[in-house]
Amino acid sequence: MSHRALCVGINDYPGSNMDLAGCVNDARDWQALLEARGYHVDSLHDGEATRARIVEALTSIIGSAADGDSVVFAFAGHGSWLPDASGDEADARDEMMCTVDVMQEQYLLDDDLNRIFNTKRPGVRLYVIADCCHSGSVSRAAPPLTAPDVTPLKARFLPPYAFARGNVRFERAIDRASNAPAPTKNAYPALLFSGCRDSEFSYDASFSRRPNGVFTRTAIDVLQNAGITSPRAFHDAIRKQLPSQSYPQTPQLFGSKEAQLGPLF
């Protein structure tokens, strides 16, 4: 039985003017926690974290996993959305993780990830930790919230206009998607821990002068309790702290009831 993980953190988004601060720390923190739990961890930070390299690493890790193995994919960086091209989303949007080359129209759509996740063999436990925005309705900057010992918050959301400006057909599609109904609730081939709802931000903040994602910092602190042994218990403990007045983001847990009540990592 083996345990493998891929931890990705991206602060530097060349050409976007929307760099972050805590994402590489998030990836390193998840790596340290998972290694302490016996995982072999691969990491990609900033310029290493291109779409091609993430796809290659994730495909390899999932493809090599067998019955009884565990795989974790942790991503910290910007999230965004694009108009749905396949017609499988009621809100006309595909959520996406923004890779470091997003300004070159490279990114990971939820459809891309589902195709990779669906290659896993039966009996493989797959956990996804997404500390990024999956916003479908908000495209403006985050409100200037502050808290003790916390710098002004940054939203981990890259508006589609940032990487689609000048493409008239694409911009019209974005406008149409902006007036669409609520998002589709898809079945997830993985157990997904998300930092926020589709309509919210995940925030980049600073704790004791060290940048981190609010969701990641809260989640890792919660895991210091050895009594938390299931994904549902893990999620419930996080939800006791988030959302809060300082951090208005609502972490989500998606997956089968069996997976939610099963082993954690």
Describe this structure in words.
The protein has a single domain (3-260), classed as Rossmann fold, CATH 3.40.50. Residues 135-150 and 180-185 have low confidence and may be disordered. Helix content is 27%, strand content 22%. The chain is built from eight helices and twelve strands. The longest helix has 14 residues, at 23-36. α1 (23-36) links the parallel β1 and β2 (40-45). The protein has helices at residues 23-36, 51-63, 110-117, 161-164, 168-177, 214-222, 231-239, 257-260, and strands spanning 3-9, 40-45, 70-76, 79-83, 93-97, 108-109, 125-131, 154-155, 191-194, 203-207, 210-213, 252-254. The protein is globular, with a radius of gyration of 17 Å. With 265 residues, the chain is an alpha/beta fold. The strands form three sheets. It has a six-stranded mixed β-sheet with strand order 2-1-3-7-9-12, with helices on both faces. α6 (214-222) packs across α7 (231-239).
